[in-house]
Amino acid sequence: MAGHGTDGHPHGADRLCEAGDRVYSRAVRRGRLPRRDAEPVPCLLELALLHPDPDDMDWLVPTSPQEVMARLLRGMYDEVSASQRRVGSAVEAFEWYAGLDRPVPASRSAAEGPAIRVLDGLARIQAAMDEATQACTTEVLTVQPGGIRREAELSEGLHRATTLRGRGVRMRDLYTHVARHGHGLLSYLELMGDAVEARTLDEVIDRLILFDRTVAFIPANAERTMALELRHPALVEYLGTVFDRLWRLAIPLTAPLPETGIEGVSHRERSIASLLAEGHQDAVIAERLGISVRTCRAHIARLSETLGAASRTQLGVRIAQAGLDGFRRSAATSPGRGARPAR
């Protein structure tokens, strides 16, 4: 597994440098070590032999020697046809890691990895998701917040989705209602056919991807440059239950949104009115509904004009008088079947 080191550490996991050997061995013996202790050996983070502790980001925990050996074995099989001389080096590495091995709980095998793993960097996130895609055999559940999906995001996921469809995997996607206005999403779903089913809600939880209800991926920071890979059965089952309940409340993408019952008030404006009644600021409302702050304020202005409100305070009163403050509660139990498309 050479070629993944940094300057001063040009090696792979099959032959660590002397400094990396010492730090990794200490991490295995102690179970974790402070992040500062690994600063002289960035190769250990590059090679995913150390990764952030999900309970305390100032500490690093080692990847188990068993998992490292499994990773090396997979790499060896992939490369053996191109380089037979790599076999001897890899075998030596297996023996070295085996000497560091320690017992792990019987409930989780080395191939399954840790129950919670921090993935630091887009490349590592992509690699973990590609691995989960290859292992997936039944279903993929996703929650995609943020409004209209960009063409680049849809193109990036198309190859993975096509691979899954070829194996008969079913996919269910949850979006915000705003995503209905994106032509790219409609084209993507048309290409995928019956393999993908999509529904929408006023707002959804943060991004979630579930493979076969055995492994889940969620963001670990606001920038989405870090993610958590979850394999703990209780956590994955909980996230699957959350998805199922949101799915039952959502409206199929092919069905129209329900009418609001008030002339001149669109479905989106009614959702905004309900969030305003809850006391949320414009920026928060925009983020939760997947629209820009500018668009949100334009809807608020139109809502004020429709309800005859001259100020935000008066708008709050008008919203309550019109019964718009309880819309989100009633919408959750009324999917609006048969209604005309909202504005």
From TrEMBL:
Cited SUPFAM superfamilies: C-terminal effector domain of the bipartite response regulators
Sequence ranges assigned to domain HTH luxR-type in this UniProt record: 258-323
InterPro entries for the chain: Sig_transdc_resp-reg_C-effctor (IPR016032), TrmB-like (IPR051797), Tscrpt_reg_LuxR_C (IPR000792), WH-like_DNA-bd_sf (IPR036388)
PROSITE patterns in UniProt: HTH_LUXR_2
Protein name, entry field: Helix-turn-helix transcriptional regulator
